[in-house]
Amino acid sequence: MSDTTSDTSADLRTAPQRALDLIADIAIHIAVLALLGLVVVQGWQVFARYVINDSPSWTEPVTLLLLATAMSLGAATGVHTRRHFGFFLLAAHMGPALRRAVDVFAALVVAVLGVVIAWWSAVLLLDGLDIKTAGANLPQSINYLPLSIGGALMALFALNQMVQAAQPAVVEAEGDR
What we know:
- The chain is mostly helical.
- The protein has 5 helices and no strands.
- The longest helix is centred in the N-terminal third of the chain and has 51 residues, at about 1-50.
- It is elongated, with a radius of gyration of 22 Å.
């Protein structure tokens, strides 16, 4: 009976992590689709300009939106996978308690930055929704939407890392190495 209870509690601990992994997977797939869309839109722009001699006006705003989407969601996923900038060699030479404190602080900094990015880009998005962009039937501020979502995801992923870093490290048994 104790084995069943420990299995259930282990599943409960990993459920939020699995949910965050799924969110990160969705975000990176959207970023990849945005990059592919960027290639298609820019390919059409070049073809229309130099072959047809009729350059479409909608390609620039759409390209900027796709670029903002790929950048923002890719950066958020980089936070989730811990592939962002860090002083990893320095952290490797710290004691466990100091390293845990530094990891919590670094995750806190990323979370605060993510909240600031999400908040101010949402403010800018709402501020320009009633202004149409030149060349496309999109709001002028639409490029702030992926930035706001990416900032919120950065904060969410960093908060998860902060919780993980605050927990004491599990000591491995000698036979498990």
